[in-house]
Amino acid sequence: MKKLITIIGAGPGISQGVAEKFGKENFKIVLISRTESKLQEQVMELAKNGIDATYAVADVANQDSLKSALLSIKEKEGHAEVILYNAAAFSGMDILDQKWETIREQMDINVGGYFNLMKMVLPFCIKENKGKLFVTNGGFALSGDDQLTSLSVGKAALRNLVQAFQKKATGTNVHIAQLTVCGFVNPNDEKYSPKAIAEQYWKLYNQNNENQENEIIY
Predict the structure, then answer these.
(1) Residue 94 predicted with pLDDT over 90
(2) Residues 163, 84, 115, 10: is their CA dihedral positive or negative?
(3) Exposed, middle or buried, 102 (CB in 10 Å: 0-12/13-18/19+)?
(4) In this structure, what are the phi and psi dihedrals at residue 56, rounded to the nearest 5 degrees?
(5) Which residues pair with 94 in a beta bridge?
(6) Does residue 145 contact residue 23 with C-beta atoms inside 8 Å?
(7) Measuring CA to CA, which residue among 145, 175, 142 is closest to residue 158?
(8) Domain 3-217 adopts which CATH fold?
(9) Using CA atoms, how far apart are residues 103 and 112, in angstroms rounded to an integer?
(10) DSSP letters along 17-67, please?
(11) Main-chain phi, psi angles of 136, to 5 degrees
(12) pLDDT digits (tens, 9 = 90+) for 56-86
């Protein structure tokens, strides 16, 4: 039976690169995002490359929606060996024109979805003493930005939250890690292409307890 990776926040960038990499390594791929038509297209594209994939529709900003998707996956496919939280939202706007309501709403995606995900899955992982729980973070977590404030604030909060969950899992075999990507994803960029970034996740996956990294700043 194939191992399972669930990618939350599916799309054409990093999630596609990760799906292709893990799919070629004999994983079955489960994609989660809000738009079913796009999920169907991504599953068909992966199938063309011989990759076994399926999907579940969820709004990660809505706890019940995310929980329903995860439960449906568990019932159909079993427990995922790897879960990647890759969801993000941003609003490009000068900080003096930005509204707090926008930042707050996008925090539900950038941070809240991950918080709810971990409260759902981490107790099981700790009980079973296993699990690879990964997060896509960004360079804006390390430095605020006056044009992408909602994203930089969200990523900073996400980084802190990941560290908190890592402390909760101390002393277990649960590997919680974040990949902090300090560049703009571009398929033509040697370092920041989805394919290259996916290799970093594969590196994290293959780390054992003795050499596990909590964060790769890339």
Answers:
(1) yes
(2) positive
(3) middle
(4) -140, 140
(5) none
(6) no
(7) 142
(8) Rossmann fold (3.40.50)
(9) 12
(10) HHHHHHHHTTEEEEEEES-HHHHHHHHHHHHHTT--EEEEE--TTSHHHHH
(11) -90, 120
(12) 999 999 999 999 999 999 999 999 999 999 9
Question: Which position has the token pair 């890690």?
Answer: 177
Q: Which residues contact 118 (CB under 8 A, 6 or more apart)?
A: 133, 165
pLDDT of residue 165: 98
Phi, psi dihedral angles at 28 (to 5 degrees): -90, 140
d(CA 218, CA 196) in angstroms, rounded, equals 10
Contact 51, 198 (CB under 8 A): no
Tell me how far apart the alpha carbons of residues 178 and 174 are, in angstroms, rounded to a whole number: 13
Residue type, 176: I
Sketch the domain layout of the chain as residue ranges. 3-217
Phi, psi of 120 (to 5 degrees): -80, -45
Structure tokens at 162: 């990941």
Distance from the first to the final alpha carbon of the chain: 33
At 1, is the secondary structure helix, strand, or coil? coil
Structure tokens at 57: 């529709």
Tell me if the pTM is above 0.85. yes
Cα(41)–Cα(171) distance, integer angstroms: 41
List the structure tokens of 168. 């909760």
